[in-house]
Each structure stands twice: as C-alpha cells, then as structure tokens.
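As promised in the previous annual report, we have extended the structural survey to additional targets. Below is the entry for Methylamine utilization protein.
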Amino acid sequence: MNTVIAVKSLITAGILCCATLSWPVMSQQFSLVNSNHTPMANMVVYLTPTSPSSAKKIAPESTQPPIEIHQENKQFSPYITVIQQGYQLKFVNDDDITHHIYSASGPKRFSFKLRKDSTQQDMLFDQAGHISMGCNIHDWMSGHVLVVDTPYYGVTDSNGNVTFDELPDSEYQLVVWHPQLRADNNQFSQTITTPLAEALTIQITASMDDIPTQQSLDDFDFLDGY
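The corresponding structure token record, generated without further manual editing, is:
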C-alpha cells in the first residue's frame, strides 16, 4: 500500500517535488488530504526530533491538570485522545448509568467502574503507545488514546489543518496516525526539516476504515447493582 506525501501545488503525475526554503516562519502548518484531495479531519499529527539534542524538549509538569475523556450518551468523547507521555488522563462519567472502562492491550492495561453521577478516575500514562478502550457494559463503545514521546502533537481540524507554534528549527520525523488508517501500525511517517517556506500539504493515499457506530441496536440500562 503506497502513501504519498506532497508539497502543496508541487506534485504532478505522482512525482514528489520538494519546496524551496526561502525564509523561516514562526509557526508551521500542515494540511492533510486523501487521494481525492478531500481534507482529512481528526487525524493525529506529531513531530519527533530525529536527534534529541537538536530540538527543545519540554518535560511534563506534575501541576498541569489532566486531560479529560468523557463518557457521554454512552460514547467516549472525544473518540481519539492524544497525550504526551508522563501526563494524566481524567475519565469522567457524564451519564446517569454505570460504565466499566477497560483496555486489554497496549502499554497501559486497566479495568475500572465509573458509576453514575459524574464519577471520575485519574490515571497516569507513562509509556508511549496506542491504547484502545471499551466498556464491558456497553460493548459498542470504543475509544482510543495515543501516548507520544514528544510535546509537538495535534489533531487536524475540519479543514484537515494542524499548526505547531514556535516549533524549533530541526529535523523531525512527522507521523500521521488514526486507528482506522489502513497502513502499518495505522500510521504514515516522513522526515521533514524546519523551517518550511510554506504550509506543507500531505496526501495520504492509504484508505480509511469506517469508524464503528457508537450506538446499540437494542438500547438498555444495566442493572444498578452492577
């Protein structure tokens, strides 16, 4: 399966062209499009310096509030969460029923109940990797956490864009990830060097699977005594 990266307006007939660097910029923007040149929203993009000493590393701060994942209307919200290694996630139950959240694979395995009335659970994620989540009570629920070992990460907006502010000039491994991306490890990667003269458009030719339907065919509330 081939995945092509293209600089905006510079790719013709499948030939990859390189942008000419002319001046540094304060921020760097990347745009993701699929094989039909349609913007790709909600894709994780992160940059890892190829040499640890070549770019500033930002260490996690224990005082930073946890990022939140909510259980709302019997769904994980957001569906995908990306977090830097060493930070905490807060699981918040906004439903009036019990959820039993679990992950059986990946660098963090867990299983805990979140009862109704906004019960919360904090958890530290200290290893990089992909963690898929489910609910033992509502088996249609699915969500994903990607833990990255870099402070330079984001998720594309509705126009397929993501911007990194004050990105140090360096060489990076740029990674595009989504749990439904049909590629090895659900990702595409490319080495880039900043600063770039203009926004970089990345064309992903790998296909995407459909996101699973987050709704039960026969809705029910589980027994309160669970």
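The chain has no helices and 16 strands. Residues 1-25 have pLDDT under 50 and may be disordered. These points will be discussed at the next consortium meeting with the crystallography subgroup.
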